[in-house]
Amino acid sequence: MYWLENTLLEVSLQEQLRANMLTLKIKDLYKSFASTEVLKKINLDIEEGSFLVLLGPSGCGKSTLLNIIAGLETIDKGAVFIDDYDVSKVEPKDRNIAMVFQSYALYPSMTVRENMIFGLKQAKTPKDKIEQQLEKVSNFLKVDELLNRKPSQLSGGQRQRTAMGRALVREPRIFLFDEPLSNLDAKLRVEMRHEIKKLYTSLKATMVYVTHDQIEAMSLASKIAVMNEGIIQQLDDPQTIYDKPNSLFVADFIGSPSMNFINGEIKKDSQSVMFTPNNEDNINFDLTHYEFENNFQNNQKIVVGLRPEYVSNTESTKKYTKKLSLTPTIIETTGFDKNVTFDFAGSEIIGRFTPNSGVELNNPQEVYFDLSQISIFDSNTELRL
Amino acid sequence: MSASTNISYQKLEDRSRITNLLLRWFLYFVLVLFAFYFIFPLYVMLVTSFKTMEEIRQGNLLTLPGQLNIESWAVAWGGRGYGAGDTYLRPYFWNSIKMVVPATFFSTFIGAMTGYVLTKWRFKGDSWVFLFLLFGCFIPYQAILLPMARTLGILGISNSILGLVVVHSIYGIPFTTLFFRNYYVSIPNELIKAARIDGAGFFKIFFKILIPISAPIIVVTVIWQFTQIWNDFLFGATFSFGTAAPIQVALNNMVLSSTSVKEYNVDMASAIIAGFPTLIVYVLAGKYFIRGLTSGAVKG
Question: Which residues contact A372 (CB under 8 A, 6 or more apart)?
């Protein structure tokens, strides 16, 4: 019985190792094109089975980073590890990855079947294994009826599924997605987003997904890396990114309509911390409850951020609620609620009002600010305080 | 008020209909005029080639032949059968075929490969390479005659079909590269990336993925190269003579070397024979030619 115990022990050890293993690790990565630095000191640790979304505006380096993970782009400095193995100089085909592209990149002259098995054939996979994989995946993605069609005979959604099928048949360690939904119309995009989420839930595979659409990022990711100008601004789970953005950029980029920002000064004495918006000397916001993560000085210039859903007309007796009387300048109906814009302290503030609220243009209105949900940033460094 | 508006609208409508009609007639008139202008020489050539010399001397250019006299065609193609000084097109026609087929093939193939590299495997300084290649399109034929003659001499292939194949292959590369580069530029790079991840290498991507979708531009290039090489006179006259000459050189010799009388019917038949293959190529592939010139993007 000794050998059995030993094997069991070994298996559980392996499982433990696997659980702790980083599927993807990027270490101090730099990349330049000519004289422009597109990636600056990128560090990423991705655990087995997580869904990482690289999110950022165009030109932030997210696609370059994905191409580097795929091995399609060379590295200037740093390294990429897959399963703790340095793959920085390994060919794309040997990295055990699969990629889905924005333009689908289906081979136009090949049928759906040929498209899906092209990679397996290159890898000299045995015929019966190829057929087996093809059948499994095409059933799963519901493209089994389309196997003999050319890409030009497929609809957008079918092309998308074929492209995913081509990735799936290879059973890779990591799936890479390069803005796979941005070519689809709005309705299909939501559908395919669901399918990708379903795919992830049933496969539990590691995925890296590039997008500039924050809604896509929020709904798909288990972790989001918000990127700007070649730097990862914040790497966290979606809720933390939304609730506690660590910089003005992240706060502004995530959320629609975006976060309200009020510029002003912070006043501190022994008992309390107060905030005075610019040009509004008579108004004070009580910030004593706020959990500061960094030190600040008295009279320091700060930016207070508050998401529109915490600016409303619903009367509240909560402890940290600030009531102000403001005049609406724009009212937008969404059906679900009303987005009401006010001018306050030199900037525009958007609040989310209940749809049946009798809010009117140019008619002063009681507005409730829920100060328990604020984020505070330093005006100069633009970082969270 | 509404009545008066109706009347004036009626008037405007009539006026615009008349204008459109007039413009349309004018358009057809111009088109017919141009069509006539282009077809007229061909008509004269055809008619003359089927006439006897007697008829040519008596009649005018436009009259139809009394009967279809194909003797001049036979003479143009196969000669009169007597020995020295009898120049006819048949051997030179095959010379030209032996020259044009490999030269078109090689220049097209190399152009496709170069276009592929210049768009999908970018390297440092590739735009300079392309610029210099483009420069090749603008160099006049006359400028390269001497250096090329010297090169052919050193290679030991002057005055041979092989030499002409080499010259035309090389001279065609700038044009074919330009065609293929512009075509491949419109093909998304993601296609290449996908193939690389799937494990295909440089040649596999070229032959399995790009070539199968290159039909339109291959047709354009082949037509272009075939016409250029077939119709070339200068290189043929410079780098070959005697039995190794291509058909255009032979045609020239034939027409100019007639000693006594000018045989217009034989000349015309010869000229038509010399132009026939390019005509065939255009008729067979013309549809694709237009399509290839206008299409570019490969979607999906």
Answer: A289, A318, A319, A320
Residues in chain B: 300
Of A98, A109, A151, the CB nearest to B197: A98
DSSP H/E element including A339: strand A338-344
Which residues in B lie closer than 8 A to residue A107 (C-beta atoms)?
A: 191, 194-195, 208-209
How many contacts does A have with B, using Cβ atoms within 8 A? 66
User: Rounded to a whole number, what is the distance in Å from the CA of A124 to chain B's nearest CA?
Assistant: 10
Mean predicted confidence (pLDDT) in A335-352: 90
Closest-CA distance, A224 to chain B, in angstroms, reads 24
Task: Tell me chain B's radius of gyration from C-alpha atoms.
Answer: 26
Interface of B with A in 133-192 (CB under 8 A): 188, 190-191
Q: What pLDDT is attached to residue A14? A: 55
**Residues A73-88 pLDDT 10s:** 999 999 999 988 899 9
pTM higher than 0.80: yes
Asked if A106 contacts A162 with a C-beta cutoff of 8 angstroms, the reply is yes
Write down the ipTM of this complex: 0.82
Q: Give the sheet arrangement for strand A365-370, strand by strand.
A: A311-312, A365-370, A321-326
Q: Where are the alpha helices (DSSP H) in A175-270?
A: 186-203, 214-220, 238-243, 248-253
Q: What is the pLDDT of residue B297?
A: 36
Helix axes B161-185, B215-231, angle to 10 degrees: 150
Other Cβ atoms less than 10 A from the Cβ of B205: the count is: 21
Dihedral class, residue A321 (left if φ above 0, else alpha if ψ from -120 to 50, else beta): beta
Tell me whether B242 touches chain A (CB under 8 Å). Answer: no
A128 pLDDT tier (thresholds 50, 70, 90): very high
Q: DSSP class of residue B297? A: -
Please tell me the distance in Å from B153's CA to the nearest CA on chain A. Answer: 45
A168-223 pLDDT, tens digit each: 998 899 999 999 988 888 888 998 899 899 989 988 899 999 999 999 999 999 99
Distance CA A371, CA A286 (A): 8
Q: Mean pLDDT for each 10-residue chunk of chain B (300 residues)?
A: 67 91 96 95 92 84 84 86 73 93 96 95 91 89 90 91 94 94 92 94 94 90 93 90 88 77 86 92 79 49
Stated as kind and residue range, the H or E segment containing A8 is helix A2-20
Distance CA A302, CA A18 (A): 45
SS (H, E, C) A95-141: CCEEEECCCCCCCCCCCHHHHHHHHHHHCCCCHHHHHHHHHHHHHHC
Q: Could you give the domains of chain A? A: 23-247 (3.40.50.300), 257-378 (2.40.50.140)
CB contact under 8 A, B299 and A101: no
| CATH domain B90-294 topology | MetI-like fold (1.10.3720)
Closest CA to A375 of A228, A248, A280, A237: A248
The residues that bridge with A326 in the sheet, in sequence order, are A365
**Backbone phi, psi, residue A324, to 5°:** -135, 155
Q: Which are the contacts of B50, defined by CB distance < 8 A and separation ≥ 6?
A: B65, B68, B69, B70, B72, B265
User: How many Å lie between the alpha carbon of A129 and the closest alpha carbon of chain B?
Assistant: 17
Cβ distance B195 to A97 less than 8 Å, yes or no, reads no
Q: Where are chain B's structural domains? A: 2-78, 90-294
Chain-chain contact of A119 with B212 (C-beta, under 8 angstroms): no
